[in-house]
Amino acid sequence: MVDQKKCIGCGACASICPVGAIKLIDGKAKIDTKKCIRCGSCQSFCPVEAIDLSKAVDNDDAQKPAEKDKK
Ligand code: SF4
Ligand code: SF4
Prior knowledge:
Elements: H1 12-16, E1 22-25, E2 28-31, H2 41-45, H3 53-63
Antiparallel strand pairs: 1-2
């Protein structure tokens, strides 16, 4: 996820993301984990190392285990 305290809202991650998964909200980057393909580009482009994809993966998968099966 994006560390909201570190993020300076530069927009580099949003412009590099190949699937448009990042939006700036209130000057901070937010990743849409449903769109994110975990390519790692945003993480390497962030100038302040505010993005930690390993956390994003763990948290989101842990929180929504059953949603795929419901329809
Ligand atoms: S890791 Fe996800 S959010 Fe980051 S640039 Fe790639 S697709 Fe976009
Ligand atoms: S690249 Fe880093 S500092 Fe810039 S908006 Fe994205 S998360 Fe924030």
